[in-house]
Structure formats: C-alpha cells, structure tokens
Amino acid sequence: MKRIVLGLPLAAGLAGPLFARDAADSVAPEGATTSGFETLSPQVATALEAKSAGQPVQAENWMVAAANPLTVQTVLGLVEPQSSGLGGGAFLVWYDATSGALTTRDARETAPLAATPRLFQDEAGEPLKFFDAVVGGRSVGTPGTPALLAEAHRRWGRAPWPSLFSAAIDHADQGFAVSPRLAGLVEGDADRLARFPSTSHISIVDRYGNVLSMTTTIENGFGSRLMVRGFLLNNERTDFSFRSHSDGVPIANRIEPGKRPRSSMAPTSVMKDGAPVLAIGSPGGSRIIGYVATSIVGWLDWGVNIQQALALPHVVNRFGTYDVELGTAAVDIQADLEAIGYEVNARDLTSGLHAIVIGLLGAADPRREGIALGE
C-alpha cells in the first residue's frame, strides 16, 4: 500500500492547537503572481528580484537547493525587508536525494538569558498593548536565520560562501524597483503599517533531486523597527504569551531565558513511498497551518492542479472562531456556520503559498507578489 507522509519541522508540528491570543498574528498580504509551468529546477519565492537572484546559482555544479535559500534570503531581506531577513528566524525542511534522509531545522529566535516573565507587563502586572511591546529592543529575539543558512551551506553547499551574497550586494549597489506593496507600506501611516505583519516562504527543488522548503520571518511588518548595519531586527519575542500564568497555572508559551516562542510556520514536504512529491509553505501567522493543509488536501485528495489548490478559498478556524475569505465562495457558508452557533468573520485572508510539484511544476499564491520561475 502506498503511503503519503508529511515532512514538517518538529517545532512547528508540536506547536499547540491553541495559540496565545496575546501573541502577534503574522498575516502577509500582497498583490499578484506569475507561476505554474514545468521546469528542470524550479524555485518559488516571494519577490521577483529574490527569485531571479537564485537563477545564476543554477549554472554552478553543486547542490543548488543548499545554496539558493541563502542567495534568495539575502535578496529578500533587501527588496522585501518588511517580511524577513538575517535579523529573523526560520524553519527548514531538507530532503537529501543521495541518502533519502529528511532533515528539519528549527531556527526560531531565542529569548536572551536576561528575559523575565514580566517583560511584556506593566507595573500592575497587566499585559502591555501589543504595539507598545513591538517597537524597540524589548521585542527582539536572538536571530536564528544566519546560523541556519550557515549550517545548510556547511552540510550541503559547495560554492564559496562569499559568492552567495553577490546578488544582494549588486541590488543594494545598483538599486531595484520597489514593489507596490513595499511602496504602500513605507508611504502609509503607522496604523496601516501595523496591519501588515510579515513572513516569507521559499521552496526549491534542484536538478539532483534535493528539495528544500523554508519559511522565514521577522514577525510583524518591519519587525521591531530597529535596524542594525542594514538589517531589520525581529520582534519575535512578542510571540510569547504576555501573561505568565492563567488561574495560577504556568502558561506553556510564557517567556523564559533561552526559550523559543511557539510558531505555526509549517514548511512542508509531502512524501510518497519515501520520496518527496510536493514542497509547500506559506506566510500567514496562526493561519499558516490551515492555509497549507487546505492546499495539500485540494491537490492530493480533490485532484485539482497545484495552482488551483493554492487559490482555493480560505476557511480557517482559530480559537473557535471561523475566518472566511472575502470575495470568494467561502462567504457562502457564513450564514450556515452562524446558524449552528459559530462566530464567523468575513475578511481578506491574504496567504502567500508557494509550492512545487516534483515532476516539476511550480506555483505561487495569486494573493501575493510571489513568482515561480525555472530554467
């Protein structure tokens, strides 16, 4: 009997079903996408500049999948700074075609040793307002992305480490076309900026059969708003619960020294008979798991193609409340859900799904500025 298995990072898979209401909800809205064609070695990434930056790497005779996330991530940190970068964290799933091994890595940001349970509480012990906690050094966790990319290169890469930064350096020196979303975020006021938290996802399959799926983030749009040597620092510590106890019982997601907050990031490899058939992931905060699961079910069980699967209307239940996607057929079930007692919110659910069907077919979410290209 054939088996289908999902490969997920352990930390994401163990994230509890109830997420701290005090933590940020990283939703990543965007505009449009080009995608969906067969290719020898496809990648899907959030910004055209970042995706294109990965293309020259493919001419090198070494493991492309291990190198491209570093090139793509450094360019994303430049052209989409609101979403991810070296000042953030990530989860990675890697399939090694030679050994058949599936490796996961948790590069979630870490609370410093000086962190205390009252970090996000006022003098009366009450939780701070979310954006009072976000802006500034209080919210910054120790970034994990640089160490993750360094380990991936050490274990699987073959190109000289400095060469992988060339694309980002060239874009920084020569300039780049600012995307409509980034322009709008910078131009808008603080209230609008606050409504656009961020995360990025990268999926890569190389010509040797290696498969990478990585979700990377600095949490809220532009993170903590602090920049160090050109890199925005994350605000991931606000993903901890602001309260340390509930009814006298310690909250599992409370902040503690050296601890990493819960996460719903879910970079995924779908395995069939021990080999990957799909790499997929998405931004979207606590809705990520719902976004990814819906697309997998659509492609695997309902038989729609991968581009159609990524465009399926979103229906997500969090904390017992349903979110249904405005402007789609999902709103048709709102009245029925409310009739049986559910609270339902109809709203924009702008995921940023990226997927590769290994065969190879790439696709990217039409809700986002993502793209799927290959050579």
Automatic annotation (TrEMBL):
InterPro entries, A to Z: GGT_bact, GGT_ssub_C, Ntn_hydrolases_N
Signal peptide residue numbers: 1-20
GO molecular function, one term: hydrolase activity
Keyword annotations from UniProtKB, A to Z: Hydrolase, Signal, Transferase, Zymogen
Source superkingdom: Bacteria
Entry similarity comment: Belongs to the gamma-glutamyltransferase family.
Protein known as: Gamma-glutamyltranspeptidase
